[in-house]
Amino acid sequence: MIHITNYKSLKLESERVSSTGLSHIHECSELEIDLSRTISRHKEKFSPAHFADVQKEVMEHAKHTINKVNEKLRTESEANLLELGRKMESEKNNCMKGIMEFLSLRLLKENDSNIILELSGDSYEAKAIYYVESGIEYSFKIDPSKQQLFERPLRFSSLEKGVRIPIHETVHDIEKGTDGGFEKIDRYILTKATIAGGRFLAIFNNPEGNSGVTFSMPRGDMPDYVSIEFFDGKNTIDITGSDGLSKKMDIERIQEPLDRIYGTMMELECDRVEITGLKMGGQDIIESKNFSSFILKLFELKSAEIREALNSMRNTGGSYSRIEIESMISKCGDSADKLRKIIGA
C-alpha cells in the first residue's frame, strides 16, 4: 500500500511539473508579444528608418534570448518528467511484485483455474489464469523452458513410439486410406495443451500437413477416460465415439504420455515469471492502475486473519508494536482510514 501511495504522489508531482513547464513556455511567448507591443508605443520618438532598425535589433535579440530560455525550460521539464517516470515505474513494479507474492500464496478461494501451453515458433509459451472470490481474475506468465519436456517442440514419438490412430472403419475406407486405416502419429507435434474445469486437453498436429489429433480426458476425482478426435484437414473423426474405431485403439499407450504432459504442466505453476493480467469486477487493475482499491479488497477479504494476527502481536509483544503498525498505516495516504477500519487498527 505504501508503494501505491508513493506512486500517486509521484503522479501528482509529474502532472504539476508538466503543467508548470507548459505554463512557463506560454509566459515566454506572451513576453515576446508584450515586448513587441511596448516597442511599438515608442514609434513616434524615432524616424521611420531608425525605428525599423531599433525594432529589428531588439526583437531579434529578444527572440534569441526567449528561445534559449524556452529550450532550457523544456529540457529541465523533460528531465524532471523522465526521472519522475522512472520513480513511478519503480514504485509500480514494487507494488506488482508485492501483489504477485501474495497471489502466489493462493490464499484466496479459487472458483476455477486454467493452465494454457501453446507452441509459438520453435518454443512454448504458457500462462496460468485463476478465477477467485469477489470477481477477481488474475494470470501469470510461466516459463515452460524450465521443464525439460517443453524445452523444444514435443513430438509424440518422444513420449511413445509407434502409436497409431485408427481413422478408417469400413473395408471401402481402408482401401482408400493408407497403413490399413491407421494414422501413425510419431511425427505429430504438441501445439496446444490446456487444463481447465477439471479437464485436460492436448492437441498434436502434423507439421507436414493439415491433419491433427485432439486428446481430452477428465482429471481430479473423475475416472480416466480418453476422448480422441482426428482431423484430416477437412473432416473431424470422433474415434472414441465410434465402436468400430475405439476397439482398435490401444488406450494404454495413449494414457501414459498424456499423464506425463499433464503432470509436467501442473509443475509449471511453480515457474511464474510475472503477472500478465489482473481484474476485479471486470475492471482491468493494471491498465487503470487502481491498485489501492484492489489492495483494500484483499485486506477486506483477509481482515479476520489480519485482526487475529494483530491481536496476537499485541498480546505477546510480537514483531511490531502498536505504534509501529500505526506508523506504517499512516504512510498509506488517503487509504489509511479505510485500512484502519478494515483491520480494526
Could you characterize the architecture of this molecule?
The protein has 345 residues and is α+β, with helices and mostly antiparallel strands. The chain contains 10 helices and 12 strands. The strands form 2 sheets. The chain has a 10-stranded antiparallel β-sheet. The protein has a two-stranded antiparallel ribbon with strand order 4-5. Helix 1 (2-40) packs antiparallel against helix 2. The longest helix is centred in the N-terminal third of the chain and has 57 residues, at 48-104. 19% of the residues are buried.
The class by helix and strand makeup works out as alpha+beta
Poorly predicted regions:
none
Strand content: 15-25%
Principal-axes geometry comes out as elongated
Tell me the helix content.
40-55%
| Tally of structural domains | 3
Neighbour order of strands in the largest sheet: 10-9-8-7-6-1-2-3-11-12
- Helix segment count? 10
> What's the total number of strands?
12
Describe the sheet with the most strands: 10 strands, antiparallel
Radius of gyration: 34 Å
What number is the mean pLDDT?
81
Write the H/E string, N to C.
HHEEEEHEEEEEEHHEEHHHHH
- Beginning-to-end CA distance, first to last residue: 15 Å
